[in-house]
């Protein structure tokens, strides 16, 4: 396990001697016999093939070696006491790093754990958000951020720690070129003239050469195969690095893998050396040459009838304060087209792909599918899952949300088996395509592996294979090459070429320059411009959301007291008349707590069903008999009692944001800080699971796996979605715990808070309402009795 040492304490060095890490359940270690020393102030570039253990090494350096997840052997000495929080760690997937509803509070999480005072927390947060060029104010909701914007926010959270060791895992993978440049400048500026050790993982090391003076390269088996001055390593070990999948600066992109799935595979894939570059390339059943992607598309593609037509498309940002993302877009997609959608982070690329997939209604315009001379509106086609799957395929940005089956092979075949269940010939052809995809994408050795135990790059390639194996007409790919080395990039590019040569129209949302250069057309999105009033205020302050009810102004402890008062009062409901009058009082006060009528009614549905169920049970088990006249008042009393017990709390839920609730419980109620803050982060994650559920349901609909109106099918789908969501929630919780610990939460027994939790006059009014809900049922019971 990680240990501190006198050497580490005095010099700030990181020393690893013979370090191995083997995850539980795997026979082979992820890292093998790793020996190195990192000196204070070194700028280190860490490269290697996908799956070589780079992310694992960063977690070990951050002091996050969790013995419940694997076995660490060898000697690892970290600076100081080796506790998490001394290093700033930017995780590969920033989605799981969010711990607060708003950007400012999220960045402040680390300084709070360091017990900084409020002025210092505010100053660190402001400096960190400024450094990364965060384009929104501190009050921006974290759930409204794109993947690239979340990456900036996560880096700001790491910089706010003022760490001794800064560890960055693919920090620019989700960013546009300008955003990536801003982020690199932020890193360079944050550590300038300071003895901060920086380790950067990036598949494209050329962007960091002016900053990093040392380069480490991990081989495919997790061994250190290169260590030295960065430029010298790239020059002297060029061929070895190319063979390991490293993007060596100055080298052209690799030739895409050639795939022909029109006939069965002749045999296993072969490795070859291409053009003396030392690049190992997989060639799968060499048949037809790939299309010439440098051209505007083939003549056939240019002259063919469009398969998807877009006219006057308008899309906006979600939420009440919507702003336009796409306006007046006209687009014709023809067989063999490759359209690259680019633009800065948050410009609407993912939103556009969802609209083209029929998963998001347009604010304006029309989308239609053209088949055999007929035009069918896309929104009508989207109602029929299997018909939609035959036409459109979609790979979402977060590949783990696309998984629907337990094994890789079953995942890749799921759509084919659903849409071609009654067509053996097409199903056989889809199986041949799936086999070719597994081999080309380097997944053949994983065909029996658990889909939920893959690395990020492997998940993305499985999601690609699963989306296209059945042969759709239009394929929509959201950042398909993120996190891929040269070899796996060549495989992904080869799949896209094979789709085009097969007559499929492909649209990719990407920041990948090499992939975008292969497109016949480019679509540049500008996205919403920041308004003068919005740009940007980094002050941490209580946030008033548009449409917040008056109850949201109260301290959350006061709102909990209201719910408690209603619960106590419900025990005095002995008569249905008392319950009905008390419930009328709650409903009379409801406008003070209701944010939206539809959302409130949706939350009341399960409460109503539960109350009716209790009343039905009271009737069914009554000694007087189901039809006895005096049994019904008893059942009605039970129904109204449950309603009085639960409804006030349900109405107050929108006014209990997790961060404010945690602040109040810790500062007002003096509860232990760690469990309170962990619970608040968990509540935030729980709120986000609804959006994940919707995405998973969309994935099943577009892959032909939606059961339609079949009751039995709906039950099976609900069970499958519940299991997938549970797996996602567990993995997300694990990643969130790592992120929180990396920002010092593991050692924060007591902490400070960026905002106070004041008690005002309105809170005493809330206490009076709680007393009213407690006393009224008691008084009514005595009067009516």
TrEMBL record:
CDD domains reported for this sequence: ABC_cobalt_CbiO_domain1, EcfT
The answer to whether the entry has keyword Ribosomal protein is no
Q: Taxonomically, which superkingdom?
A: Bacteria
Q: Where in the cell is it found?
A: Membrane
Which sequence ranges are marked TM in the entry?
557-589, 601-619, 761-780
Q: Where is the ABC transporter domain?
A: 9-246, 308-552
Which residues does UniProt assign to the signal peptide?
A: none
Q: Key word Glycoprotein present in the record?
A: no
| Family named by the database record | Belongs to the ABC transporter superfamily.
Q: Name one GO molecular function term.
A: ATPase-coupled transmembrane transporter activity
Keyword annotations from UniProtKB, A to Z? ATP-binding, Hydrolase, Membrane, Nucleotide-binding, Transmembrane, Transmembrane helix, Transport
The principal location of this protein is: membrane
Per the record, membrane topology reads: Multi-pass membrane protein
The name on file for this protein is Energy-coupling factor transport system ATP-binding protein
Q: Which Gene3D superfamilies does the record associate with it?
A: P-loop containing nucleotide triphosphate hydrolases
Enzyme Commission numbers on file: 3.6.3.-
Q: Please give the organism.
A: Microlunatus parietis
Read off the Pfam families from this record.
ABC_tran (PF00005), CbiQ (PF02361)
Q: Name one GO cellular component term.
A: ATP-binding cassette (ABC) transporter complex
């Amino acid at each position: 396990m990680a240990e501190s040492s006198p050497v580490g304490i005095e010099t700030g060095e990181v020393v690893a001697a013979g370090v191995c890490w083997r995850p539980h359940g795997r026979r082979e270690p992820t890292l093998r016999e790793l020996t190195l020393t990192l000196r204070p102030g070194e700028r280190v570039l860490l490269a290697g093939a996908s799956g070589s253990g780079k992310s694992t090494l960063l977690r070990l350096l951050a002091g996050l070696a969790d013995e419940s997840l694997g076995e660490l052997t060898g000697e690892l000495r970290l600076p100081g006491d080796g506790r998490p929080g001394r290093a700033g760690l930017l995780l590969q997937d920033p989605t799981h790093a969010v711990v607060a509803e708003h950007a400012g509070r999220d960045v402040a999480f680390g300084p709070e754990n360091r017990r900084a005072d409020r002025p210092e927390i505010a100053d660190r947060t402001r400096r960190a958000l400024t450094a990364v060029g965060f384009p929104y104010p501190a009050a921006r909701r974290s759930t409204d951020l794109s993947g690239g914007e979340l990456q900036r926010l996560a880096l700001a959270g790491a910089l706010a720690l003022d760490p001794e060791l800064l560890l960055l895992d693919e920090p620019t993978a989700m960013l546009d070129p300008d955003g990536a440049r801003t982020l690199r400048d932020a890193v360079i500026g944050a550590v300038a003239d300071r003895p901060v050790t920086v380790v950067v993982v990036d598949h494209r090391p050329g962007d960091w050469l002016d900053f990093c003076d040392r380069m480490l390269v991990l081989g495919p088996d997790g061994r250190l195969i290169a260590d030295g001055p960065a430029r010298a390593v790239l020059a002297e070990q060029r061929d070895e690095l190319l063979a390991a999948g490293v993007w060596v600066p100055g080298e052209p992109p690799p030739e895409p893998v050639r795939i022909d799935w029109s006939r069965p595979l002749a045999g296993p894939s072969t490795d070859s050396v291409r053009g003396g570059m030392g690049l190992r390339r997989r060639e799968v059943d060499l048949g037809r040459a790939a299309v010439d992607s440098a051209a505007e598309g083939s003549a056939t593609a240019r002259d063919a009838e469009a398969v998807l037509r877009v006219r006057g498309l308008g899309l906006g940002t979600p939420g009440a304060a919507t702003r336009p993302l796409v306006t007046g877009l006209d687009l014709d997609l023809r067989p063999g087209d490759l359209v690259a959608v680019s633009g800065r982070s948050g410009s609407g690329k993912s939103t556009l792909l969802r609209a083209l997939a029929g998963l998001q209604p347009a604010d304006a315009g029309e989308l239609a599918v053209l088949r055999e001379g007929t035009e069918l509106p896309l929104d009508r086609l989207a109602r029929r899952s299997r018909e939609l799957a035959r036409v459109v395929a979609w790979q979402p940005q977060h590949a783990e949300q696309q998984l629907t089956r337990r094994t890789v092979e079953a995942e890749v075949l799921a759509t084919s088996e659903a849409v071609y269940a009654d067509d053996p010939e097409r199903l056989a052809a889809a199986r041949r395509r799936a086999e070719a995809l597994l081999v080309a994408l380097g997944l053949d050795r994983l065909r029996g592996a658990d889909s939920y135990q893959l690395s990020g790059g492997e998940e993305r390639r499985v999601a690609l294979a699963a989306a296209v194996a059945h042969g759709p007409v239009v394929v929509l790919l959201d950042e398909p090459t993120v996190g891929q080395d040269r070899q796996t990039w060549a495989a992904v590019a080869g799949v896209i070429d094979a789709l085009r040569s097969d007559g499929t129209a492909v649209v990719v949302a990407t920041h990948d320059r090499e992939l975008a250069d292969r497109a016949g057309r480019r679509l540049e999105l500008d996205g919403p411009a920041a308004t003068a009033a919005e740009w940007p205020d980094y002050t941490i302050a209580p946030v008033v959301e548009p449409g917040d009810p008056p109850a949201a102004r109260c301290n959350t402890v006061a709102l909990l007291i209201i719910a408690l008062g209603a619960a106590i009062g419900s025990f005095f409901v002995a008569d249905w008349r008392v319950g009905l009058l008390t419930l009328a009082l709650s409903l009379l006060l409801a406008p003070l707590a209701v944010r939206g009528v539809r959302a409130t009614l949706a939350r009341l549905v399960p409460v109503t069903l539960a109350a009716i169920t209790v009343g039905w049970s009271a009737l069914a088990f009554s000694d007087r008999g189901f039809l006895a006249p005096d049994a019904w008042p008893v059942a009605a009393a039970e129904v109204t009692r449950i309603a009085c017990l639960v409804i006030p709390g349900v109405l107050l839920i929108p006014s209990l944001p997790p961060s404010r609730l945690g602040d109040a419980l810790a500062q007002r109620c003096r509860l232990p800080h760690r469990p309170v803050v962990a619970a608040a982060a968990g509540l935030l994650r729980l709120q986000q699971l609804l959006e994940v559920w919707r995405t998973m349901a969309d994935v099943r609909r577009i892959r032909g796996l939606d059961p339609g109106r079949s009751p039995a099918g709906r039950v099976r789908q609900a069970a499958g979605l519940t299991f997938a969501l549970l797996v996602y929630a567990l993995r997300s919780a694990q990643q969130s715990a790592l992120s929180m610990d990396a920002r010092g939460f593991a050692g924060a027994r007591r902490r400070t808070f960026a905002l106070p939790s004041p008690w005002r006059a309105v809170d005493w009014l809330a206490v009076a309402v709680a007393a009213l809900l407690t006393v009224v049922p008691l008084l009514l019971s005595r009067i009516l009795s």
